Amino acid sequence: MLSVCSSSLGSVAEDEKIEAEVVVIHEVAHDPGAFTQGLEMDGGRMFESTGLFGESTLREVDPDSGEVIRFSSLEASLFGEGIAVVGENIIMLTWQNQTALVFDKETFSVIHNLSYEGEGWGLCFDGSSLVMSNGSSSLSFRDPETFEIRRTVTVTDYSGNQVDMINELECVITPAGQSVFANVWQEDIILMIDPITGNIMEEYDVSELSSQNGDGHNDVLNGIAHKGSSEFWITGKNWTSMYLVELPMLSDMDEISCNTYCLIEGEILDNWHLLIFALACFIIFMISAPKERAGKESNNRHDEQPSTTPAKQRRGVVDNE
Q1: Domain coverage including residue 284
Q2: Residue range 76-133, pLDDT digits in tens
Q3: CB atoms < 10 A from the CB of 107, how many?
Q4: Judgement on whether residues 71 and 5 belong to the same structural domain of the protein
Q5: Nearest to 83, CA basis, from 128, 51, 115
Q6: What domain count does the chain have?
Q7: Are 85 and 47 contacting, i.e. CB atoms less than 8 angstroms apart?
Q8: How far apart are CA 194 and CA 200, in angstroms?
């Protein structure tokens, strides 16, 4: 009876990759000499970091024209990377120097440095933690004052595979909750990532814009700044243009791509009659064979575990210790 009932219910469909259309609202000029590493909006002001040894800078850019308002150059030994605004400061990563520079937002003077291990790529601030990428599939959540790692999470695609080369980051509060938007190095996509599980919730294709900005090895998408609502500024390394775009599926919670839990919930609602049938089968099974089941050893090895899985691992978060 249970076997027949189970086969009638069917299985929930696997997550499907859904690419959302990017709508261009406005285009402005971008300095083609800017090897963009980070882009950030703060109260209507735009800040940009650029890289390369001997050419790295922190800039303030006019979002209406793309004109560089002011800039500060880094020492020739430093390769600038992603930036994040935290209060009155701007924190900039460096690629291989294992040093984050803390700038005063108004004077662009370096106040102090922060240290970390490994490479620095992208950075954003979620209001509590600094989120940092290092070119792998890992995102680390750090104390904004000490830069110590609080936790890490692995970014995975719709099939559960790790996604490497996570680059420039943008922390955004969306209708679905806190999210991390990310560029992937040398790919013309923007990912919307669940910061708790690391699962990709949405993917945006910007290959059409990338094709209009050179085809060199380094002329790649790298720069995303949230303006507000569903609007973002995006650009790339040595691009001649910067674009204000709308990510449509961000504007309405009902249109946001579901993760696995949403799909399961939708499948259950659509097949409620099958669920009731399966539940009835289960009850019949429990009533008809309680004595046969009593005292038998479980085949589920999880039942033999002495303790439950740590909460962080259940959420898909890896403890950094």
Answers
A1: 1-18+257-291
A2: 999 999 999 999 999 999 999 999 999 999 999 999 999 999 999 999 999 999 999 9
A3: 10
A4: no
A5: 51
A6: 2
A7: yes
A8: 6
